[in-house]
Write a structure and sequence with these properties.
homodimer; 408 residues; alpha/beta; Carbamate kinase; four-stranded antiparallel β-sheet; 12 helices; 34% helix; globular
Chain lengths: 408, 408
């Protein structure tokens, strides 16, 4: 039965005009064969956002929180949406491109992040009613004062999910250059296999811990609004991976996927006086500097002194160092060490809710390869560890063998 | 005394980030030294619009009347305004970039042309009151349905003049890569000199007949709204050319400027029956095809047959041929010839209102060089002739010597 669906194509899928034509073919064939009402979301052509940011730097500055940064980078989708709409029209499929302020997709700012507050679907529905495909700019929104805003790297996924949510929680297809979500990165791990189904929570944990296939925020958005979500290839008709609330046998496999990220930096503060309030001061200072802290380990040192380790995104390293400066002035004994050669390795799976012993097995497997676990953090369905970066590929492979290949 | 002024920079002036920084320096120094409230208008970086159009062609079509054509090419200024605003901010001058739909600059369509119907100056004035320079996208508008529209090649001039008109007919500076309006193209005519002043009507005639320094439409807009207009260099402090209602001694020189354009095609229809209504039918067919006819000559042929010659823009040649097809079916005797090797040469000057004999002197000068005049058309302050294109540079030089160098 014909339905409304959102199809999102990433930067690689619209990276050349040849690919844009392929996207247009895919969309118009889908409409011809199903009768679906399709809303298309596209990112900027791959490389375009970086080109614009480079020009911005040359024009004297491109701080990614400035109004003009957002005004500038949104020019990328301005071109790609029009090109995609043109390609659709040339295939006989009426289409209209829409920038964020032409929909509009309204955002508000919270702690420096732009969140979608409201999407007006009146225009979209009017176009769909006329058989016209709206081609909406991903990644961008419009702020309260009419300025462009952006939703962060990978923000087009969130645009797509938010549109699907606003259109009555219709199905949302994230079409990309890989054909689904894998148990591990196939380029590292030859035994990696495509997952047919994942829960929102599994996908969220995978996305937050390094799987680049989807922006994490889009997954929580989809979960909250019960948007049926698929990750599939732009260029084949393979089914891809379905992301949903729950599926039969979802706890059979203990671990669904293994991810790794190497973009964090580990700070270690030693010789801290072991008294209340130090940790609070530390993390308040980091919070004030808008640095997001990920893993934290606090340990008792010798002679009544304490040590605290934590990780932050590498791009926030200097912001974090700045935030620590004043605190360190008050604590002349303390020392700080920064290590950017760390990897954060995560195993994720609904099965971990019911299966115990995953952490100990993980340590055992890593230990048998001589890999030291420096930090650890867990959620109900995830265990993450920090290890030395040079071991990251090896660690992914041995964990994949132990938890996934051995159980299938 | 501080005043509001509009400063417009063309594509060459913002063609690189280095030049954008130079523009930002110029604007911020102007503000520092005068205290003026400045609105900046910029075009797309030179080459960018063509790059977008080429991509559009590759995406299956880029008809310049389609909605998506306008949506696409307006991406050019989307980037340049943000870069210019960034460069201003990096010089310590607060600035905000504005796309046409962020101002908004509203347009309506008449005979396929988008005309500015209304500019909302509330936001501009609010920014100016706060000491923020609005950097407005030239060339673009927003249509009644919220889609982007464009104002034609050179349309940024019209944007600038329209903004100046809306801001109380404040002064408008068109800053470009040449330092003013010249009596003829200096690259053809070494004796060409910069004009200090011109009337709106002279400028309009020069712009419509080949002087590329200003979009003709912007001049009539400026005239209608009494916007004080200057054409000057982006990169020097020279005074440039002032365009105004009238100036002392404006009729002293018979001819103010000589222009030439080689972008027209001449159609000649022969063996037309010499009866009423043929010309009407012909020009109605051309009008229906949205072909703008420039010069027209009708002549009596031998044996009661008539001939009609007319010129159209070369880009409309095939549209004109299409429009003639049906008419020719009704007139089996008639023949049609198309000549694209023609040049249209114009001499313009307020002095022609009072001085007679310009046309005869013009024919004399051209004739003495063996240049045949094929068509002629006149206004109160202009005489244009069609000649063979190969003589165009020579003709400009001899007319410049006869009318301008000899009289100064």
């Amino acid at each position: 039965m014909p339905q409304t669906v959102v199809m999102k194509f990433g930067g690689t899928s619209v990276g050349t005009t040849e690919r844009i034509n392929a996207v247009a073919n895919r969309v118009s064939e889908h409409i011809r064969s199903t009768g679906d009402r399709v809303v298309v979301v596209v990112s900027a052509m791959s490389g375009e956002t970086d080109r614009l940011i480079e020009l911005g730097k040359q024009a004297g500055g491109c701080g990614n929180k400035s109004r003009e940064y957002h005004q500038l980078v949104t020019a990328g989708e301005h071109a790609s949406i029009a090109l995609t709409a043109m390609a659709l029209e040339s295939k006989g499929q009426p289409a209209q491109s829409l920038l964020a302020n032409q929909v509009p997709i309204r955002t508000h700012e919270i702690y420096g992040l732009n969140l979608i507050s409201d999407i007006d679907v009146e225009k979209l529905n009017a176009l769909l009613d006329e058989g016209i495909v709206p081609v909406v700019a991903g990644f961008q929104g419009v702020g309260e004062d009419g300025s462009f805003t952006t939703l962060g790297r990978g923000g087009s996924d969130t645009t797509a999910v938010a549109l699907a949510a606003s259109l009555g929680s219709c199905p949302c297809f994230i079409l990309t250059d890989i054909d689904g979500v894998y148990t591990a990165l196939p380029s590292i791990c030859r035994g990696a296999k495509k997952l047919k189904k994942l829960t929102y929570e599994e996908m969220l944990e995978l996305a937050s811990s390094g799987a680049k296939v989807l922006q994490a925020r889009s997954v929580s958005f989809a979960h909250k609004h019960r948007v049926p979500l698929w990750v599939a290839s732009s260029f084949s008709d393979d089914e891809g991976t379905e992301i949903l609330e729950e599926y039969e046998g979802m706890e059979d496999a203990v671990v669904s996927g293994i991810t790794c990220r190497v973009d964090e930096a580990k700070f270690t503060l030693r010789n801290l006086p072991d008294k209340p309030g130090i940790a609070a001061k530390l993390f308040k200072a980091l919070g004030d500097a808008e640095v997001v802290v990920d893993m934290i380990v606090q340990s008792q040192g010798a002679g009544g002194n304490a040590a605290i380790s934590f990780t932050v995104p590498q791009e926030d390293t200097s912001a974090a160092e700045g935030a620590l400066k004043n605190l360190l002035l008050e604590l002349p004994e303390a020392s700080v060490e920064v290590d950017t050669d760390i990897a954060k390795l995560s195993v994720v799976g609904e099965g971990m809710r019911t299966h115990a012993g995953v952490a100990s097995r993980m340590f055992e497997v890593l230990g048998s390869e001589g890999i030291n676990v420096e930090m650890i953090t867990t959620s109900e369905i995830k265990i993450s560890v920090a290890i030395q970066a040079k071991y990251s590929e090896l660690a992914v492979r041995v964990l994949h063998e132990a938890f996934i290949q051995s159980s299938s």
